[in-house]
Write a structure and sequence with these properties.
The structure holds two protein chains of two kinds. Chain A is an alpha+beta fold. Chain A has three domains: about 40 residues; about 90 residues, no CATH class; about 210 residues, Orthogonal Bundle (MetI-like fold). By secondary structure, chain B is mainly alpha-helical. The chains are: A alpha+beta, B mainly alpha.
């Protein structure tokens, strides 16, 4: 009977109705109907998510960014803290395939001739076409410790001699590209780690509030309302300015993350609470209770799986706020501080107009911030739509 | 309605007490206080600070009192309009903050109006022309507006103004008016400068509001009563403006409550970049130098501002939407 219906509708989107509460919309062009009917919830979500092309693309982009963050030592051409006074504020080099000697398949960059302008006392750079540095992959460069464990000197990209500044250098002649790649590790992990902390707080507090209701719920709701009406940036500024200046970088990093999640949990707690409230009344929860399941078992086995997908979507939408928070704080100089490298710390270098007018490439870390935040937003949107595969 | 307002006003009292406690705790958090860093700075310059001077200073600022005494004297002082003394500026805090708070409030309110004015037409257009090129453009710009950090937008605008028009766009007043007292000319000068922070601070809020309005309007337009009205031959224009738009407009009012904290947050950081004479730069500096009374007063007053904003928006919402009152 199902086969007949499928023939009739052809490749159109088919509404499969099993009973009143379950109606699934899936593009059935390439899927046999039996598969749709027996598909698990996660499978349905995956099918729905796949249709959201932008979200899938953003997801892939984010995976790439996180991989870059994880392997930044290997991927970056230089040590991000190595300074070269001879190359302060060197502009980005253009990757070329064709030059004086004609076309080559191996890309190369020209070196710089520099001189100090006697009036402005700035170093000025001119392209020196005699210095041709071919770009090579897996070259041997400065030794480093990969993940602090293995000692090696192989870099993914680099030149055997001369210099390679694909995104220019900063005021101390440090390679901006390498610094951005190292910054990805810190900035992106602040988002993940901060959201993880807020999630724990949010699930515990929101869950308690939603499950017990009554006075606990009232107090938690007032607390959330209160926290939400304090302007975040001044509060974050005040809290992170209170972090002692002599703390080691790692502790400051954890401190800042905890500060960010102290505010961030409120949104997640609200989602958890409202889901708890609506699920508490569901028939399957009642059935479980009547079957004699304990409170913890009902929560963990029956309720959590059914709102997990919503939680995942909310988390994804909360991460960009964390990233923006860290960037803003570090930019103001009250968040992470050098020698820690994050995108916000890098943007602090571009704080006044004059610097930006002369060295616009110092704003490039901001492009990475925007891309990461956008990607998380698109991914979160897609996940949120997919979280409820039964809604068309 | 009357009981609703009274209930909300009563709720304000514990909120304000909580705000004062949190702010006081924040001020007390950093190890040491302004006095220790002040004495260190004095000693670093080679001055000899004897114990008697230190004791006199400690006594003068009440730093030898127990914590709760310090808290109560601070809170009751604020109620009398005495916000304490700024160590760094050597002036009473109340002399320093009011002008700046006023400008912060001015920018925030102007920004709010700006977001409404921009979000309304774009949101309606986006919803009525769904999946058109214009809709995609608005959505795309909205996403960019959400993703770009405020301070970066400020930097980029400054850069464009500087490199393309050779303009310096920092500040809120021209040098001639910076220290002048209020006059009509100064107000006009303010208007010439205020649009940049307004655009910068308002972008993300506008983007969010456009998305909400679009989603709500689309939801509303799909409802049976709209279909019925259309079937009966009601004109598209009337169909849109009579009911769906009014329902979809609710977030304009309901979001005032939480957009005010966002605006003040954004204003704080943008003010640092654009060097505005508002609360931002002074707050940052007072936090870094542990000028506790100044920092604490700013945090308390900014929070009170947003709490009052939330209150107003709640009352407005209850007035607009009777379902909320119960």
């Amino acid at each position: 009977m199902f086969r007949k219906r499928r023939e009739k509708t052809g490749s159109e989107t088919l509404l499969v109705e099993q009973d009143a509460s379950l109606s699934v919309s899936v593009d059935v062009e390439e899927l046999p109907l039996e598969e749709i009917l027996v598909a698990s919830q996660w499978k349905l979500m995956w099918w729905k998510f796949k249709k959201h092309k932008l979200a899938v693309f953003s997801g892939i982009l984010l995976i790439i960014l996180y991989v870059v963050g994880a392997f930044c030592e290997f991927l970056s051409p230089y040590d991000p803290n190595e300074y070269r006074t001879r190359y302060a504020f060197a502009p980005p080099q253009l990757v070329r395939f064709a030059g004086e000697e004609g076309f080559s398949f191996r890309p190369f960059v020209y070196g710089y001739k520099s001189s100090i302008n006697r009036e402005t006392l700035r170093r000025e750079y001119t392209i020196d076409k005699d210095q041709v540095y071919p770009i090579k992959f897996f070259v041997r460069g400065e030794p480093y410790k990969f993940w602090g464990i293995w000692e090696t000197d192989i870099h993914f990209i680099g030149t055997e001699e001369g210099v390679l500044f694909l995104l220019g250098t900063d005021r101390m002649g440090r390679d901006v590209l390498s610094r951005i790649l190292y910054g990805a590790r810190i900035s992106l992990s602040v988002g993940l780690f901060g959201v993880f902390l807020s999630l724990i707080l949010g699930i515990i507090i929101g869950g308690l509030s939603g499950y017990f209701g009554g006075t606990i719920d009232m107090i938690v709701q007032r607390l959330i309302e209160f926290l939400r009406c304090i302007p975040t940036i001044p509060l974050w500024m005040a809290l992170s300015a209170a972090l002692p200046a002599q703390w080691p970088p790692l502790r400051v990093y954890f401190g800042v993350t905890i500060i960010l999640s102290l505010i961030g949990w409120t949104g997640l707690a609200r989602v958890v609470r409202s889901k708890f409230l609506s699920l508490r009344e569901e028939e399957f929860v009642l059935a479980a209770r009547l079957a004699g399941a304990g409170r913890m078992r009902i929560i963990v086995r029956h309720m959590v799986p059914s709102f997990l997908s919503h939680i995942i979507a909310s988390i994804t939408l909360a991460i960009p706020n964390m990233i923006l928070g860290e960037t803003s704080l570090s930019f103001l100089g009250v968040g992470l501080r050098p020698p820690v490298i994050s995108w916000g710390v890098l943007l602090k270098e571009a704080q006044n107009v004059r610097t930006i007018a002369l060295t616009p490439w110092l704003l490039v870390p901001g492009v990475f911030v925007i891309v990461a935040v956008l990607a998380f937003n698109f991914l979160g949107d897609g996940l949120r739509d997919a979280a409820d595969p039964y809604v068309r | 309605m009357g009981t609703f307002i009274i209930k909300r006003l009563l709720l304000l009292i514990p909120t304000l007490i909580f705000i004062s406690i949190v702010s006081f705790a924040i001020i007390q958090l950093p190890p040491g206080d302004y006095l220790t860093s002040y004495i260190q700075a004095l000693e670093a310059t080679g001055a000899i600070v004897d114990q008697a001077t230190v004791d006199a200073l400690v006594k003068r600022y009440g730093l030898d009192q127990p914590m709760y005494v310090q808290y109560f004297s601070w809170v009751f002082g604020m109620l009398r309009g005495d916000f304490g003394y700024s160590f760094e500026w050597n002036r009473p805090v109340s002399e320093l903050i009011w002008n700046r708070l006023l400008l912060t409030l001015l920018i925030s309110v102007t920004t709010l109006l700006f977001t409404w004015l921009v979000a309304f037409p774009f949101g309606v257009y986006s919803a009525t022309h769904r999946y058109s090129f214009g809709d995609y453009l608005v959505t795309f710009l909205g996403f960019i507006g959400l993703a770009i950090p405020n301070f970066m937008l400020a930097l980029i605008l400054m850069w464009i103004a500087y490199s393309a028009f050779d303009l310096s766009i920092g500040g809120l007043f021209s040098p001639a008016f910076a220290e002048a007292s209020w006059s009509f000319a100064r107000f006009v000068d303010l208007l010439k400068h205020i649009w940049i922070p307004v655009i910068v601070v308002g972008t993300s809020g506008t983007a969010a509001l456009i998305r909400t309005l679009r989603a709500n309007l689309l939801d509303e337009m799909g409802k049976p009563y709209v279909v019925t009205a259309r079937a009966k031959g009601v004109s598209e224009r009337k169909l849109l403006f009579k009911y769906p738009l009014r329902v979809a407009m609710i977030p304009f009012v309901s979001t005032v409550g939480w957009s005010l904290p966002l605006l003040i947050s954004g204003e704080t950081i943008v003010a640092v970049v654009l060097n505005l004479p508002t609360t931002g730069p002074l707050l940052l500096r007072s936090l870094q130098s542990q000028d506790m009374y100044l920092a604490g007063s700013f945090i308390v007053l900014l929070s009170i501002l947003t709490v009052i904003g939330t209150l107003i928006s709640d009352i407005l919402l209850a007035w607009l939407d009777p379902r909320i009152r119960s």
